Amino acid sequence: MVDANVSTSAETAEQLLEELLSATHEASPTELPLALDRYTEAMGMGRTVIYLIDLQQRMLMPLDEDEPRMGLDDTLAGFAYRTDSVRIEEAGAGGLTIWLPLMNGAERLGVLKLRPASLDGVMLTRCRMLASLLALIITSKRTYIDTVAQYTRTRTMKLPTEMLRAFLPPRSIGTGRVVSTAVVEPAYELGGDAFDHSFTEDVLHATILDAMGHDLASGLTTSVAMAGSRNARRTGADLEALVTTVDEALAKWLPDQFCTGVFLRLHMPSGVLRWANCGHPTPLVIRHRRLLDKELERTAEPPLGLPAWLSDAPRRVHETALEPGDRVLLYTDGVVESRDEEGEQFGLERFADHIIRSTAAGQNAPEVLRLLIHAILDLRHRELSDDATILMIEWHPPGP
How far apart are CA 40 and CA 42, in angstroms? Predict the structure, then answer.
């Protein structure tokens, strides 16, 4: 390692970065913070602390056990996470504390804390680059290092939920044209809800599923439906063939089970939206801060796994064109059917109103859903009677 007293010229910084990258390839979960500290001390960034967001997006969990957990709503670290922005505050002895969001594309992982003695444009740029690099490192290592999952959980997870969460993609994905973001509750007792989203070339694929029941069989049903969808998608199947694949997989492997779902494809350059709705609540559109609850309503079709019993008609795929700034909402019935202590449902109007108000307040798409799912949970004192899943897509056309 280069001596800490050596001036961090461009050449020195490059060498230090190379050494950090080399160390992170081989570092165990306990060695990674040590390698990171050696780098940041040599770069004049001070001691580093990584905070990861917990599963329900309420707390920032430090990877250093000597550091306290931090709330999102009453700390500068939480503000950096919620707004995807860098925050700077004075620390003791005339130093500074910098909070940087840890993001992989649209996915929010947590925040990074740095303590440089001084700050200029070059140092701030290097801090941002380090945060970007760490986000990529965390994303790659969490697939095989359980330490990340352990730090982001606050209680024990049920077996069906563990199985389903193994299939779930990142909460948020995005490009310059579209953001797709989702939330799922109850986080530790999930039964049969799931979502999926991905990109192929210039198309966004999005799916929401809700299986019958609330047990291991429900989770298995959703998992088979998810696997069938991905298998068809990755072999280049069109939307009609994809839904048929899922129907046939459930009929073959789980003939006594079924689930509802929506499969959607958005052509990002044009905004052309194609979808198939298999017995699921109608997706919503919010346009110009107005709820269009009938925009995507079509003739009802049977749930996945049941067509052969109920109808010989082929699955129908529908098409429409979005307008710039449209938000498309896929949700499960547990969202709007959640009731307060007086028995009043959360309802579509309140559902849409939360999104419209948060958007008007300037919240980014993932933050809008975080606030919404917390509002639904708080209505029930954080105890839901059914799974509640929301997936929101926000489309912006390419520039001229």
Answer: 5
At 317, the amino acid letter reads V
Overall residue count recorded for the chain in this entry: 400
Residue type, 301: E
Which burial class, exposed, middle or buried, applies to 217 when counting CB atoms under 10 A from its CB (0-12, 13-18, 19+)? middle
Q: Give Dmax over CA atoms of the chain in angstroms.
A: 76
Say whether 45 sits in a helix, a strand or coil: coil
In whole angstroms, give the CA distance from residue 62 to residue 49: 7
User: Which of 194, 262, 248, 244 is closest to 223 using CA atoms?
Assistant: 194
**Is the separation of the CB atoms in 325 and 280 below 8 Å?**
no
Distance of CA 14 to the CA centre of its chain: 33
What's the angle, vertex CA 119, arms to CA 115 and CA 120, rounded to 5? Answer: 155
Name 12's Cβ contacts closer than 8 Å, sequence gap at least 6.
2, 6
Q: Measured at the alpha carbon of residue 327, what is the angle toward residues 323 and 333, in degrees to the nearest 5? A: 135
CA distance linking residue 262 with residue 151, whole number of Å: 33
State the pTM of this model: 0.91
Enumerate residue ranges in the chain where pLDDT < 70.
1-8, 94, 307-312, 339-343, 380-383, 385, 399-400
Cα–Cα distance, 341 to 381 (Å, whole number): 9
Predicted confidence (pLDDT) per residue in 279-300, tens digit: 999 999 999 989 998 999 999 8
DSSP result, 140-192: HHTTT-HHHHHHH-SSPPPHHHHHHHHH---SEEE-SSEEEEEEEESTTS--S
Residue that has been written with the tokens 């990109």 in this structure: 199
pLDDT tens digits, one per residue of 144-171: 889 889 999 999 999 989 999 999 999 9
For 28-55, how does the pLDDT look when each residue is reduced to its tens digit (9 = 90+)?
877 888 888 888 888 888 888 999 999 9
Which residue matches tokens 């509750």? 185
Task: Show the DSSP H helices in the chain as ranges.
Answer: 10-26, 31-42, 76-83, 121-141, 146-152, 159-167, 216-234, 239-253, 307-310, 333-336, 347-360, 365-379
Crossing angle of helices 10-26 and 31-42, in 10° steps, is: 180
User: Cβ distance 221 to 258 under 8 Å?
Assistant: yes
178-185 vs 193-200, strand pairing mode? unpaired
